[in-house]
Specification:
Elements (H helix, E strand, L loop, with lengths): L1 H9 L3 H12 L7 H13 L5 H34 L3 H5 L4 H14 L1 H7 L10 H6 L4 H26 L5 H47 L1
Helix pairs in contact: 2-4, 3-4, 3-9, 3-10, 4-9, 6-7, 7-9, 9-10
Length: 217
Amino acid sequence: MEELYLWIADNMNYGVITLFMAIESSFIPFPSEIIMIPAAYVAINEGTLSLPLIILFGTVGAIIGALVNYGLAYGLGRHFVHRFADTRLSHMLLIDRPGVEKAEDFFARHGAIGTFVGRLIPAIRQLISIPAGMARMNLPKFIFFTFLGAGLWNTVLVGLGAFFGHSMPEDVLIAKVQEYSNYVKVIIAAIILVGLVYYIYKVIQANRAVEQKKSHQ
């Protein structure tokens, strides 16, 4: 991993960002912190990259990787995915049946919005595209919610990299963010869920007000 990290650091560009974020978002385990934080560090300290473009290309890569999982699950179906999740190869890729079933359950309970929120939750993040594909979720909607979720997480990583990039060596910065990244994901997901609950509550209240107004007319 250290050699790979050094190669990424020495060859950092938008193509590398897109490629490795696509890998991270597919079924190949690869931490997004290893690509997005060094990219932000380069942007802040060397000026050869743009922070908004890092987020954009990172998010495009995440969508590409998610579409790989979506397409495989869509084409192969639930039975094949479950059988594959029991194989040694699948376990080497950090995919197992309990993880797939957990992602399925999350998607079943939250529907399309689960594709967005799931991108921010550890152990669900890379797998949420699989139940979306098995359920044959509307493709434009899938891309839209994946874009929102991946874009938000990439913005957080780039923001952290940019904020601490001036005062902290790159290797220390990555280690710190990796250490706390799961907590950050959970906090973001919780904030989003609270916001959604509040939004739904306001919509229900508005609909009730409209109905009461109609009943008094």
